[in-house]
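Now for a typical sample entry:
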Amino acid sequence: MTVVDCAGTGRERGRAHGEQAREAVRAALDRWRADVGGGAAGLVHASPLPGTLRRLVPDLADELRGIAEGAAVPFEDVVAYNCMDEQWWLGRRHRRRAGCSVLGERAADGTRLAQNMDLPPSMDGTQIVLRLRPADGPEQLVLSAAGLIGLTGVNAAGVAVCVNTLGMLHGGPRGLPVAAVIRGALAGRTRQEALAFLSSVPHASGQHYAVADAGGLDSVECSAGGVVPWLAPGAGRLVHTNHPLASTDVDPVALEELRAEGRIGDSRARLDFLERAMGPSEGTAGLERLLEDDTVPVCMSGRPGWPMRTFGTVAYELGAEVRARFRLGLPGRAAWIEPGWTTAPAA
């Protein structure tokens, strides 16, 4: 199972996801429970996060309910699993994710946005692409894991969203979880609508959001303290890793933990490498090659001592056509796929 088609209302989309990927959802939740321990769901549900989901994005809250119903799994576990970034700061587990790299560039034929998504090795094998057809909004192609509502994606209107965790920024239990923020932004039909959504909601976790369409790139760093733009208007290139370049809403305790573990140094090394390596545009293929580098490492192969592995890679082309390529796993082990649209996308 690599592409899961989900259409209709939130509850209907969730049930389609849960029913079509039932065994994968159950396996993913089993691995998650073994990885984070039995108290993670209680940690999330004791916080205001579930209520914030229902208040700000009720359609996505219904989608989570539908996933649980379709896969016949506990609703509380599905909600907690979809609060992945939030679990880490709630439990002071920042060390579990620190590897995603985002690249973007403007060119004469449009805009390109690409990234590696790095996650715990226990999640490998649960990769899927959600092809979402909401009752109200553009069709979406979203990299996800069975049971999650999304990690990064693009819509048929030509708006793409990529992300990096910024674990040293303040989190807030009354903010919106990252997965829901991504999907909320992808409901926008323009880059400006997506950015307006990012600016209008409170944020539960420190996160960098890259938003692109055929007209350009935007980059914002979000935290409980607010939304801070990074790229200058009209910038033609974007490189971002896992430390803030603009926001000063830093949690000093989290920062010291990450520094002691070498995460800050690793993030800066990847940023420096990518900034040097991004020369004249070589198209989407050039960005894909950069994201395969395992020497810095940009691509995490799951070597001993590294708690992360590259879960998947995405490459979005936003121009006269809207194209999305996904590699569901590591280079050399997983091939690129291009699921395509059920409706004609308009750039």
Notes: Confidence is low (pLDDT under 50) at residues 93-97. The longest strand covers residues 309-319. The first helix runs from residue 10 to 20.
